[in-house]
What does this fold into?
Amino acid sequence: MTEAIKIRVENLFFSYRNRLILKDVNVNFAENAITALTGPSGVGKSTFLMTLNRLWENVSDADMSGAVEIKLQGRFRDVYAPAMPVTELRKMVAMVFQAPNPLPMSIHKNIAFPLKLAGERNRKLIEHKVEHALRMANLWDEVKDRLNDDARSLSGGQQQRLCIARALTLEPEVLLLDEPTSSLDQASMAAIEELLVGLKDRLTILLVSHYLEQVSRISDHIVTFDDSTVVS
Ligand SMILES: Nc1ncnc2c1ncn2[C@@H]1O[C@H](COP(=O)(O)OP(=O)(O)OP(=O)(O)O)[C@@H](O)[C@H]1O
It folds into this structure.
């Protein structure tokens, strides 16, 4: 790989209730690129994503060994080091899930939520960042006149772009997406693909996708999982 590396994974093993799911995964991911993670169902792609932002730590009877290093704020950091608080990590390594999961509140509050959680109280700054995140997610023009509407009144595709906007609010360096378009129609899928391509100048994107056409349309690299590990 000649591009700069953003994520280094070495000797990663993962199990649920002593059942080995990932076995000796060794892989690097390029910076400012879209890498698609593909492979058969149940092979551990979603689990792998969760090792990058430590989301699996919320799952009981799960166990992991190995090293994950991500270049954050300009230097490689051990994601599992005691000096890396998980809340800080998840600000920098954000995640979007398969089904859109807007919070039961207004469009504006959905986007402002991570800022408020992070302790931001400056209303002007919050307004600015909400607009910026919605613009980055190509949603601003569609919602700017209805920011106080319940987010659940948006279409499925708009809800997923809202979730991407929410993930972008704290300006992460890495965006993990787990089959983000699988519940959406073609037009919404196309809107999200366009949005991801537009984002890679500022972010490193890892995308689990089953759609081979999508993978060939937007990914710069493909990492294939099979037999509990990365095979290509
Ligand atoms: N919380 C859990 N507890 C126990 N086993 C789990 C848990 N989550 C996932 N698994 C199992 O781990 C294996 C890998 O699941 P994972 O969802 O990571 O695969 P995947 O490649 O992303 O699959 P898909 O493409 O279908 O989403 C599966 O056999 C799954 O049943």
Q: What stands out?
A: Residues 44 and 168 are 25 Å apart (CA to CA). The domain at 5-230 is CATH 3.40.50.300 (Rossmann fold).
